[in-house]
Amino acid sequence: MLDQKLWRLGTAKAIRLLQLLFLSIALWFIYWTHIYEVLYWNKTLLETFQSNFPNVFVYSILIIAVIFLEFQSKRRSRISMSSSSVKSLEILQKENEQSKYELMKSKKMPSNKIGIALLIIGALLLSASVITSSTILAFIGLGLTFWGALFLFVRSTKFVKIPILNATATSPYTTLDRIIADLNYNGKSIYIPPYPKDTYLPEHLAGLKDMVVFISAKDSATMPNLEEMAKKQFMVKNPEGICITPPGSGLVSLFEKELKADFTKIDQESFYEELPTVIVNNLGLASDFEIKVEKEFIHVKITDSVYNHLYSKSQNLKTIHSIGCPLTSAVSCALAITTGKPVTITKSKISPDLKTIEIWYQIIEG
Amino acid sequence: MQFPLSMSDISLWIAITALILLVTSELLFSHSGHLNFPIDKTRLRLVALILGAAFAVTVLLRAITPSII
Question: Which residues in chain B have Cβ-Cβ distances shorter than 8 Å to A130?
Fold first, then answer.
């Protein structure tokens, strides 16, 4: 079975190579038939299309093939795995991640140094090309200067490696586990929506503008009263429980910043449409994010989350299943803010290889 | 001393660079989720689009006033 999986991984790479090959040939055809002829043979774009119709046909087929292969590779990646092979694959993946980490450590070469080096060499070559009137030197100099500037421009401002993120994210959950074990609480966690930021509230009620998660002492979905919440108390007496800042409250602010929207004002349909894009494309917190809404229940499936290690058995964290990891907690907060109603995590399911996390949320009506 | 590249040479260089960057940014965007190298995909796409637009401008210049290039 493992051989089959590895063979599949091999075919995925072969498909990628084929795609690149097809794209290169297609681009060569485009370059030759249009750009070259337009620039050097003084033809119009329409003339090049007319005179090179077979070429246009070939590269159209090649581009269609690339798109078809892309769809095929995505379909292949959705094939489910059996639990026995998953364990072996998990070990392989861990070894792979470890070796990648070691490699990254050994290759500590910041991209800004490469960018500056390219810029300097490029500028020198450009100057040399002016002095010697060499076209080749000018092309090389122009290229190096451009790529140097590009390297400086496209690098991320700050980059945190996943092992560092893992190390810092675990301790707050361990602390929370200890507190809850000490207090002997076994109730639900309820995400309580805050009042909108621009709403006027008297000073003694200002605490209601903060997002909180209430962990009750007993298994009931009773909300704490407003007065206690407004005082920003940790321990709440009626009903008994604790109020804490959700682990994902910071991420919600990032979601709002990326979407350039206030979740208290956004309509729910566009929120459900745009949330996966923000999580997957803008912030890169997961490889895939699916959200399904069925009345007051919301099912979320997250693939390859950056916080998936928090669910591993070796961590043995208990509160992670009730309040969620920072990402699932952020989704809870966002749901509570957009709906204006309390939200609770009813169930969580994690695949053995920690690849997919499924969470069921419930919006508490009334 | 004179810069050895003509406007048409630069136009061709911009075209090829824009193609490379557009394809790269498109492939990067099709790969969803976190990457193993730190790169700002949106900035890369912005540069690719700017270069593509620059090439379009050079083509337009050529079409409107052929004597320039």
Answer: 1-4
Does some domain include residue A296?
yes
Strand order in the sheet with A235-236: A235-236, A241-244, A212-216, A189-192, A343-350, A356-363, A297-303, A288-294
DSSP A215: E
- 3-state SS, residue A347: strand
Count of structural domains, chain A = 3
Q: What range does the domain containing A39 cover?
A: 2-75
Q: Is the pLDDT of residue A201 over 80?
A: no
Domain boundaries, chain B: 40-69
Contact flag A131-B12 (C-beta cutoff 8 Å) = no
Q: Is residue A31 part of a domain?
A: yes
Residues A57 and A205 in one domain: no
* Residues in a beta bridge with A244: A213
**Residue A205 neighbours by CB under 8 Å, 6+ apart:** A226, A230
Q: Is residue A102 part of a domain?
A: no
What's the gap in Å between the CA of A303 and the closest CA on chain B? 9
Q: Could you report the per-residue pLDDT of A230-276, keeping only the tens digit for each?
A: 777 888 888 888 889 999 989 999 999 888 888 888 888 888 888 99
Closest CA to A11 of A304, A94, A19: A19
Do residues A131 and A225 both lie within one domain? Answer: no
The count of other CB atoms within 10 Å of the CB of residue A101 is 13
ipTM for the predicted complex: 0.83
Same domain, A70 and A115: no
Using the Cβ of A159 and the Cβ atoms of chain B, whether some distance falls under 8 Å is answered with yes
**pLDDT tens sequence across A212-224:** 899 888 877 677 7
